[in-house]
Structures are given as structure tokens and as C-alpha cells.
Design a protein that fits this description.
There is one protein chain. This protein is 41% helix and 16% strand. By secondary structure, the protein is α/β, with parallel strands linked by helices. The strands form two sheets. The protein has a six-stranded mixed beta sheet, sandwiched between helices. Strands 5-4-3-6 form a four-stranded parallel beta sheet, sandwiched between helices.
């Protein structure tokens, strides 16, 4: 979807939105979920996933379509909309712990006692490969981008896309100031623990980025931009007012970097913006 930057106070900039919130289950995560379930032999115990919400909904949806038993662990910060989705797809849901890392630990204990196959939200090759199909599609749909802005949580989306482009395009990670996981990792030279808070905590606040995506990011996407919660809210509002797009906080983070000028787009440039999720309750934007 193309838009003129002037509509958002970005004169001379052309915007290309990749509408991943229109995927089944409401986010790009469905790509990795299907690739993970279809690329392996699954045990009778089915699959298990830990998630802030979107990955859990995607795995639950894929499992429902493929007739596979699914157990999903989410933390208490998961939004009611995402919890309702997961249950609606027929998965068994466990809610507990403050953050994604707590849900991940609980899911790992479940794997040990059940024999279910773990479907990691971002740190497994099938997940990265599935998310990388976003890049494959976007390169054919918008071959003349000057840069692509991608929100970062655990980094599966950024890693998959950056691996696809392999340096042919400037792919830039966008993170909340309150959850700078990739920023801290790039500073340290390896994945390290980072704060995990803010309004996008249910999608962009794991304890650290994935081990598999990090070398990809360091080589092909070594730049990050940090945005405030206020900028994310402003981006949600702007998307609704101008385009009638409802984006969850994590889904609006990449666009927030443009509106807040944390990412400065040159006049005459064409910037790709990935709108990665819309799993949120109805919001009154005023």
C-alpha cells in the first residue's frame, strides 16, 4: 500500500506500507507458524509455544487448520484480544508470569513432561525462514525502496527479512525505548538481557534477541532506532485518522520512528514501513 508522506508531515517522502496485520491470526507470525508445523514431523502430544500473544495466536491458528493439538503459554501482560483469539482457535491456554521470558520457561518445562514439539517465537530456523517470506514478497511488490523499517522484539521478523535482502536494502530495526533488546545486543556484541516494558510489552519485549538472528542483524541490519511510548501512540492515531488502519502498539512502532523523526527520511526517498500486527481490542482514538 502506497501513501504520500506529506499526509503525515513527511514532505517529499513516499511511503510503502507492508500490511502484515492482514495475515490470518492478525500478524506476520502466521508465516513462521505454518512453516514450523509443516516442515517437521510432529509428536502425538502436539506443539507448544510461548508468546506475548501474536505468536501464540498464529501457532493456535496453524494448529487448528492442520488438526494438531496446541498448548500456548502467555504472560499476564498479554492483551485480552490476543488471549481471546488463542482460545477461539481451540488451543489450550496457560496464563502466568510477568513477561514473555516467564512464559518461555513454563513452556520449556511443559516440553520436558509432555514431549510436545516446541515452536519458538523467533529463535528457530523454520520461524526465521517463514518470516523471511515477507522480504521475498516485498522485494517483488516494491523493488525500489531506499530503506525498510521493521519493529523488533525477539528479532525473528527482522532476521528473516535481513537474511533475504542480504545487504541489498537498508533494513532498520525499530524498538521501544523501554525494550531495547537488539540495541543492547549490538552494543555488547552478543545477545544480552535488556529491559522489557512499555506499551508494546506483549509483542516487543522479550528478555533478549534470538541467538540465530543476531549474527544476521549484525551483518545486514546493524542500525536500530528507539521510539517512545508516546510516539507509538501517536503513530496508532495517525494510521487510524489517515488510513483507517487499526494497529496494535507493536504494529505501529516502525511507523512511529518516521513520525517522531527518530528516523530521518531524505526528500525524494521511498521508505518501506512494516505494519506487523493488529491484535488489539477496539480503541477509541481521540
Amino acid at each position: 500500500m502506497e501513501a504520500e508522506g506529506a499526509d503525515f508531515g513527511l514532505d517529499g517522502v513516499k511511503l510503502v506500507f507492508k500490511l502484515e496485520y492482514l495475515q490470518h491470526a492478525g500478524s506476520f507470525k502466521t508465516r513462521g507458524a505454518f512453516n514450523s508445523l509443516l516442515s517437521r514431523s510432529l509428536p502425538k502430544a502436539g506443539v507448544v509455544a510461548a508468546s506475548g500473544g501474536n505468536h501464540g495466536a498464529a501457532v493456535a491458528y496453524a494448529a487448528m487448520k492442520l488438526g494438531v493439538r496446541a498448548t500456548i503459554f502467555v504472560p499476564v501482560v498479554a492483551s485480552p484480544a490476543k488471549i481471546e483469539q488463542i482460545r477461539g482457535y481451540g488451543a489450550h491456554l496457560e496464563i502466568g508470569g510477568e513477561r514473555y521470558a516467564d512464559a518461555l520457561e513454563a513452556s520449556e518445562r511443559f516440553v520436558e513432561r509432555s514431549g510436545a514439539a516446541p515452536i519458538h517465537a523467533y529463535d528457530q530456523y523454520p520461524t526465521l525462514e517463514g518470516q523471511g517470506t515477507v522480504g521475498l514478497e516485498l522485494e517483488s511488490q516494491a523493488p525500489k525502496l531506499d530503506a525498510l523499517l521493521v519493529a523488533v522484539g525477539g528479532g525473528g521478523l527482522l532476521g528473516g527479512i535481513a537474511a533475504w535482502y542480504a545487504g541489498r536494502l537498508s533494513v532498520i530495526g525499530v524498538e521501544p525505548e523501554s525494550a531495547p533488546t537488539l540495541t543492547r545486543a549490538l552494543e555488547a556484541g552478543a545477545p544480552v538481557d535488556a529491559p522489557a516494558g512499555g506499551i508494546a510489552a506483549d509483542s516487543l519485549a522479550p528478555r533478549r534477541v534470538g541467538e540465530l538472528m543476531f549474527p544476521i542483524a549484525r551483518r545486514y541490519a546493524p542500525r536500530t532506532v528507539l521510539v517512545t511510548d508516546e510516539a507509538i501512540r501517536a503513530a496508532q492515531l495517525a494510521l487510524w485518522k489517515s488510513l483507517r488502519i487499526v494497529a496494535e502498539p507493536g504494529g505501529a512502532a516502525a511507523f512511529a520512528s518516521l513520525l517522531s523523526h527518530r528516523f530521518a527520511a531524505d526528500r525524494g526517498s521511498t521508505i518501506g514501513v512494516l505494519l506487523c500486527g493488529a491484535n488489539t481490542a477496539a480503541v477509541k482514538f481521540d
